[in-house]
Amino acid sequence: MHFPRPLALPPAAAGASPAARVRQFLLHTWRGRSLLASVVIVALDMAGVAMPGLLMAIAVCVLVLFGLVGLPRLSRWVVRRLMWRIRTKMLVSYLFIAVVPLVLLTIFFLLVGFLGLSLTASYMVSSQMERAAQDLRNLAQATMTDLRLDDPRLRQTLEDRLSPARSLYPNLEWTLVRDSKPLARQGAAPAARPGWLPAPSFAGVVKDEKREALRGLWVQGPSFLVLDVPTDQAFFARLEASTGIAVIASDKEVKGRRGADGEVEISSADERKLEAKLHGSGGVLFFSVVDRTDWATGKKDVMGLAIRYKPAELIRRLSPGSLDMSDVFVKGMAIVGGLFLVVYGGALLVGVLLARSITRNIHALSVGTDRLRQGDFSTTIPIRTRDQLGELADSFNMMARGIEDLLREQAEKQRLEEELRIARQIQMSLLPQGAVSHPGLRISALCLPATEVGGDYYDLLPLSESRLAVLVADVSGKGTSAALYMAELKGLVLSLSRIYDSPARLLGEANRILAANMDPRSFVTMTYAVVDTAERTMRYARAGHNPILHLEAATGRTRMLAPAGLGLGIDPGDRFEQILEEAMLPLRSGDVFLFFTDGLTEAMNERSELFGEMRLRELMESAGEAGDGRPVAELKERILAEIRRFVGGAAPQDDMTLVILKVV
């Protein structure tokens, strides 16, 4: 079922397109015009058109301001647009869940590999230098063994014994000392034994007179031999040849480049070479540290070295025998990486398919909801899966059908309400219109149906200049049927009041007519009175209705006027007339008569308590104590206010009708 009138769209759905909104902003707002003018000015200036400097500065400021304010908003808008579809959100979330851990793990393993290889390279450099120093000490010990210090060919003997080491270290320097006097010397090796060195030997890196060297020392009696190898480029070149790790700078060179403490001077050529080494390519840059001793004081510190190594070359040198572990490692990683990519690609494909199966149903729900909002309740969502989303789609289809039925019921209800509204207007038109006046009487009346159309009825019928017929009736039930009986009763009373002066005879004839045509399950209670202000009398009869409440002006007390009677339509025979009684009452100035239906006395509050006749009588008597000058309209409003206060928030259970007559 399609309803031609769509439901009202929310502002977001009924808004203009993005292009129309941008056009509206640029052409119809002062901020948009300012932005457009600034862009045109900057574009003309870039095209070579001479623009005034002040105008150009203002345009640039405007563009910068819009950039600072507008770019974040534009970014948020773009993100919202891109992330509007749930499928995109799920794919992005899947990528975050799957790819981010993968990237982090990759970075972690790369970092672990980098640190592992770098620390290995650092250890190889430091251990090689420490081993070289120990070799120098061992060489010094071997050289001093069985050495004759008084031999005239001492120097030659030393050179012969040190020749194997010189083949490894061409820059080898040495000094032989006995009793603090140098016996033989080659290079700048020290000739004095420091006081802080009690041990008979020493091996390590030393700092001596602004130079650094590997030093080995051996003491034998009053003599000692010192062997030095300067840590210069030649030494680091041999170190690179043996380990494959290049030492590109020491802390002395770095300090000299930075001018630290003014201790080391370095030429511009050497600085350029050092710069090229530090920023060169062909390996991984790291550092290594070696323990260093100040030869003059014996204090320990570390010597920093900037090293560069190639991971594949380092792995190859660490491989046992002739096996190239770097090649095995690369091939193994390639195989593992390929398998991982295959597995990951399969997982990604499965994730995309699952996301698509989910978002396809959600998209169908979104489309169905949009059509539902436009008033098309015949749309259905195909159920592709038997899972939670399938149940959701089935629930949506049931909801759409339910809404369609509800709208149909609502339309029917609105039609009935419209009919009831018209019926209520007709019913209210049957009641006396406006204020009714009669010589010698003050009159106020009211009818409040509990539903749109009620069954209560009252009327005031002038019979002559001095006579007024007053009737209050209550049709059993409520709604349209009660209103129809009320309309029928009004026609009967209008006709019969012109024929019968006696209230009892009028009620008897009305009962005969109604009993013959009325539903057996329905009846009417009614009080009919004829007030004669000339004769100062009131004749009345009661067909099963509520009594008339009479407030006596002389005593200020109330009494119930309740002659016997049976409801109209209950008995079509003589029993009605046998029971029915007619009474007459003289009228005195100040007397007040209240005709009412059971809606007043049976008004119920939230505690299921009834207002009752006693409260109504007390209310009338309190009004009588206020004096005869109280208007009847004010008394009517007071009665209604007290009933409403008593009822509180409870819904009305029955129609309320009252007619107040006051004799003047």
What is the structure about, briefly put?
51% of the residues lie in helices and 20% in strands. By secondary structure, it is α+β, with helices and mostly antiparallel strands.
Folded structure, characterized:
Helix content is 51%, strand content 20%. With 664 residues, it is α+β, with helices and mostly antiparallel strands. It has four domains: 11-82; 108-318, no CATH class; 322-430, no CATH class; 433-663, PPM-type phosphatase domain (Phosphatase 2c, domain 1), CATH 3.60.40. The strands form three sheets. An eight-stranded mixed β-sheet has the order 2-1-5-4-3-7-8-6. Strands 9-18-17-14-15 form a five-stranded antiparallel β-sheet. The chain has a five-stranded antiparallel β-sheet with strand order 10-11-12-13-16, covered by helices on one side. It is rod-shaped. The two termini are 66 Å apart.
Overall number of domains: 4
Structural class: alpha+beta
Which strand-content bin applies to the residues?
15-25%
The fold-level CATH name of the largest domain is Phosphatase 2c, domain 1
Biggest sheet architecture: 8 strands, mixed
- Give the number of DSSP strands: 18
Cα separation of the termini: 66 Å
Q: Could you tell me the radius of gyration in angstroms?
A: 58 Å
- The CATH superfamily of the largest domain is known as PPM-type phosphatase domain
Low-confidence parts, pLDDT < 50 over ≥5 residues? 1-15, 256-266
Mean pLDDT: 83
With strands numbered from the N-terminus, the spatial order across the biggest sheet is 2-1-5-4-3-7-8-6
Shape: rod-shaped
What level of helicity do the residues show? 40-55%
Level-2 CATH architecture of the largest domain: 4-Layer Sandwich
Our count of helices gives 18
CATH class of the largest domain, please? Alpha Beta
